[in-house]
Write a sequence for this structure.
């Protein structure tokens, strides 16, 4: 039994149909449970007050925003090398989920930053990198939407995803370099306050619900991608059936 | 209800916006999925009748 | 290859629009900035390197869709694709032609515009050098974007959206190099990184652009 069996759309649909109900329940249970735990049952941070509760959304969303792009990169590679349609469609299905995750990370970050840093937006390396990631997602989705022929669209977006990944990594380092070059002390201090670094700082009281939320978001991402991939497969089938009907009508 | 102190607006708005976006994502995904599935079944049915 | 380059250059000259458009845009941006931010010498000289870089980048962006669109419309791109020349070479020549007609004039005129923006005296060399190193990268990355969107009816906006994030590293290192040069700091690190990004783009991206064009011409 090999993983490539799921490259068959029928097999993929049948199996994903079977596991999805359990995944939906589990992911929503973990998300809701983790968020309730985080929201109601954790103490306030001595410095951040109750705003610390935002990390239970902010950190998992940011994590999934990056992982979603990574998953799209792997799926694009599989499409380019082995040409399995399911893989290309999975990458397409993941992009909107990734963009929502990026947006949530950016917005919750801005809302948190307002009282904590005294500003909605700072050109902190981390924030800037996410903004660039957001632009990459938008370009990727826009390219999918713009091209009629599905195979051409899959090819072009895959190459964009590969090239974009290289440039995204480059941007990450460029942005780090750029801001440290501008205002050293303050930005490092503030970067330290960004929730991503909280693991060392944050005690177990916060860590456990945070991990529950991360698991919940990851499962939610998984089940959404499975579901949306199924939708894309059916949309492709509709296209194929309609084309065949037209051919038969002409014949 | 927990006491959110002076940051109540901040925390609640962050949660509200995020949950709203997540729910919207799920609802839109499912709505499109249902529509596409129904359309596919309709076309397949049509194909069986004629073909 | 040389013939192709000369043909593209001649076409660009004759059409006129593309050749002057980028330059005119660059000129307008840099001349309008003092009106917008105020005439204080100190402020202007501080933002001058960044303004010149963003002006050059946008001027470059403005002319990207001309790289391939005309050849696509009149069908000569299909002919070029079947020519004995590998598509990678053709794409490289297209980028080079774009750089010569858009990038190079921008590089040459930037120091002149620097005078109007009160660029510090020591910065001219560094600004010139940073643009000289960076603009070839902009042209090559832009050609990749143009290749992605070549078949599309209204590809202009999409092209900008695709290319903009790809320009971020070049812009950061280029502007940083010019800024450090202007304030008399060491420019070595951003210069090397800028040169590295440009060189790697010039060396590798034509393969991606050619692959994309092949898919689009299928």
């Amino acid at each position: 039994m090999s993983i490539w069996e799921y490259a068959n759309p029928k097999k993929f649909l049948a199996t994903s149909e079977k596991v999805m109900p359990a995944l939906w329940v589990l992911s929503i249970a973990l998300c809701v449970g983790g968020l309730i735990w985080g929201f109601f049952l954790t103490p306030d941070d001595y410095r951040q007050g109750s705003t610390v509760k935002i990390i239970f959304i902010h950190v998992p969303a940011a994590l999934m925003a990056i992982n979603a792009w990574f998953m799209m990169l792997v799926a694009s590679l599989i499409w380019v090398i082995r040409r399995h349609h399911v893989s290309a469609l999975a990458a397409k299905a993941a992009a909107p989920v990734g963009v929502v995750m990026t947006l949530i990370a950016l917005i919750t970050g801005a809302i948190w930053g307002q009282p904590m840093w005294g500003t909605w937006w700072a050109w902190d390396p981390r924030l800037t990198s996410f903004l660039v990631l957001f632009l990459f997602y938008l370009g990727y989705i826009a390219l999918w939407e713009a091209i009629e022929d599905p195979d051409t669209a899959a090819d072009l977006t895959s190459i964009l995803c590969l090239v974009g990944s290289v440039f995204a990594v480059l941007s990450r380092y460029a942005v780090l370099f750029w801001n440290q070059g501008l205002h050293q002390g303050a930005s490092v201090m503030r970067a330290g306050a960004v929730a991503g670094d909280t693991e060392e700082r944050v005690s177990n009281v916060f860590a456990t619900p945070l991990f529950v939320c991360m698991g919940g978001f990851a499962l939610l991402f998984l089940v959404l991608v499975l579901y949306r991939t199924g939708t894309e497969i059916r949309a492709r089938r509709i296209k194929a059936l309609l084309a065949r009907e037209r051919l038969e009508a002409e014949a | 209800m927990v006491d959110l102190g002076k940051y109540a607006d901040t925390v609640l708005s962050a949660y509200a916006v995020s949950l709203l976006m997540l729910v919207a994502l799920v609802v839109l995904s499912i709505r499109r999925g249902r529509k596409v599935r129904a359309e596919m079944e309709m076309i397949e049915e049509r194909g069986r009748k004629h073909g | 290859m040389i013939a192709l380059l000369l043909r593209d250059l001649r076409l660009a000259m004759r059409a006129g629009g593309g050749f002057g458009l980028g330059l005119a845009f660059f000129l307008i941006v840099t001349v309008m900035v003092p009106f917008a931010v105020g005439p204080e010498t100190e402020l202007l000289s501080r933002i001058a390197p960044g303004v010149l870089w963003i002006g050059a980048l946008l001027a470059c962006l403005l002319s990207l869709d001309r790289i391939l669109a005309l050849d696509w419309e009149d069908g000569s791109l299909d002919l070029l694709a079947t020519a004995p020349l590998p598509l990678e070479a053709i794409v490289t020549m297209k980028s080079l032609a774009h750089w010569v007609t858009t990038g190079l004039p921008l590089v040459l005129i930037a120091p002149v515009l620097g005078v109007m923006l009160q660029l510090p005296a020591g910065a001219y060399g560094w600004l010139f050098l940073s643009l000289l190193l960076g603009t070839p990268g902009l042209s090559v990355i832009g050609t990749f974007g143009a290749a992605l969107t070549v078949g599309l009816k209204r590809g202009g906006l999409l092209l900008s959206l695709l290319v903009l994030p790809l320009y971020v590293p070049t812009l950061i290192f280029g502007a940083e190099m010019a800024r450090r040069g202007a304030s008399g700091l060491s420019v070595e690190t951003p210069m090397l990184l800028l040169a590295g990004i440009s060189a790697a783009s010039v060396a590798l991206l034509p393969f991606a652009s050619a692959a994309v064009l092949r898919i689009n011409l299928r």
